[in-house]
Structures are given as structure tokens and as C-alpha cells.
Amino acid sequence: MAYIEFTNVCVDFPIYNANGRSLKKRLIQVATGGQLGSDQQGRVVVRALESLSFTLKDGDRVGLLGHNGAGKSTLLRLLSGVYEPSSGSARIEGEIGSLIDISLGIDPEATGRENIYLRGGLLGMRRSEIAAQIDDIIEFSELGDFVDMPLRTYSTGMHLRLAFAVSTVVRPEILLMDEWLSVGDEGFKRKAEARMSELVRSTNILVIASHSRELVLHTCNRVIWLEHGKIRMDDDPQTVASAYFGT
């Protein structure tokens, strides 16, 4: 069972070495981001998320819509544990898997095989678990003998196939994504699409940030529209997509 409950969650980023005198008595909403203001110590702060309250449970497939800087990536990083709330409470129950950056932890000087263990470890897998699945990961990546060559000798496509193959082997209870992953040539893309669909079906809760109307309508049963770090709308996909993209 997975469960997420946010109650009046805010995330502030203090800006040091900035002159906050003109901001001490007012709050400024910036054009493409959150809000600028000042804290009790007079430091300039960027409020990336403000007063977020929502509950997610098993079966929820939630799309995040909003312009660049609206707070989608900040919310994903908050859910993944990279950030902590500045105020409010965030209760998260369930194992979390993140596909926000599938190349995180990849070492260009290490071999593909060694990088499978590196990336798998960052995903929370034990070495024995990786060893039990490494043959399947290598086969899926279609790297062949290149798996024992340094990653710096790989093409961009080979690099992405390896990162995708190892990153999607986990089956978390809560899956976080920043856009839908589709990598490789047309043949590999079909495999990748099938793997992604199976991964989404197996997870309890999905949270995916996207700019695609088709994706949120096809994949999600709920959409949250963020604007300047606040929730502007939280409803079914058709209702939110019609308001956000236009009828």
C-alpha cells in the first residue's frame, strides 16, 4: 500500500548575497517561476511551492501540468526526498522510484557492466538483486560485447539504452517521472514503450510531469495544474486539460 498526504506544504530557497531591502514589505510574483519575498531574517527567498495540500492513494495516476518554472520539478524532487518542506507536513508511505534523471551516477570511465551496478545501487537495489537481473538488463539494452567496454566509447544511443534498461528494472510502489521516457531507434522505442507501460501498470502511484495533453489524457486519472508554485486546479484529466490547453 502506498500513500501520500501533503498539508500546506511550502518550499523556500534562500538567496544569499542579495539585497532584500526592497522585498521586505512585499511579495513579488515573478513571470515564470514561484514568488520572491523575504523571510523573518530579511533574507531574500524564492518560494517555489506554496500551501500545497493533496492526498494520493493506490491507483492514482497523477499528471502535473504547468509552464516552465511552475514548480513541477520541485514537487517531484520533494516527493523523492531531495528537498524537505520549509513548512507544512508531507507524509509519504511506500517505496519510491525516480526516473527523473536516468543517467544519474553513470561513470564514463567504467564499463557498461560496472555502470549497471553503480546505477542499480543508486536505485536502492542490493548487489545480489542486480546480479540476479544483470543478464536480462544486458539483453534488453542490446549492447552485446560493448557491455564490457568503457562507457566513453558508447554512442549517445547506446548510453541511453543502458541507462534505460537498468533504471526501469525496479518496480517501486511510487513512481516519479519527468516526461515519458522513449529512447533509441524505432525498434528499441517499441520495446521501451512496452517496458514503460508495464512499469506504470505495476506501480501503486504514478506522478508524472508533462507538457503533453495526449499523455495526461491517456495515462492519468487525475491532473494537478501548478501555477507559480500553487495548485490552480486539481481534477479529472479532461477537465484540467480543457482548461489548461484550451478546448
Instruction: Please give the largest β-sheet.
Output: 6 strands, mixed
Radius of gyration: 20 Å
Oligomer: single chain
Number of separate structural domains: 2
Strand order of the largest sheet: 7-8-9-5-10-11
Strand content: 25-35%
Alpha-carbon distance between the termini? Answer: 36 Å
CATH topology value of the largest domain: Rossmann fold
CATH superfamily of the largest domain: P-loop containing nucleotide triphosphate hydrolases
CATH class of the largest domain: Alpha Beta
Explain what you see.
By secondary structure, the chain is α/β, with parallel strands linked by helices. It has 2 domains: 3-94 and 208-245, P-loop containing nucleotide triphosphate hydrolases (Rossmann fold), CATH 3.40.50; 112-203, no CATH class. It has 7 helices and 11 strands. The chain has helices spanning 72-80, 112-122, 127-141, 156-167, 186-202, 213-219, 237-245; strands at residues 3-15, 28-29, 35-38, 44-57, 61-65, 87-93, 96-98, 174-178, 205-209, 222-227, 230-235. The strands form 2 sheets. It has a 6-stranded mixed beta sheet, with helices on both faces. A 5-stranded antiparallel beta sheet has the order 2-3-4-1-6, with helices on one face. A hairpin with a 5-residue loop joins strand 3 and strand 4 (44-57). Helix 2 (112-122) packs across helix 3 (127-141), helix 2 (112-122) crosses helix 4 and helix 3 crosses helix 4 (156-167). The longest helix is centred in the C-terminal third of the chain and has 17 residues, at 186-202. It is globular. It starts with a strand and ends with a helix. 35% of the residues are buried. The model is unreliable at 23-32 (pLDDT under 50).
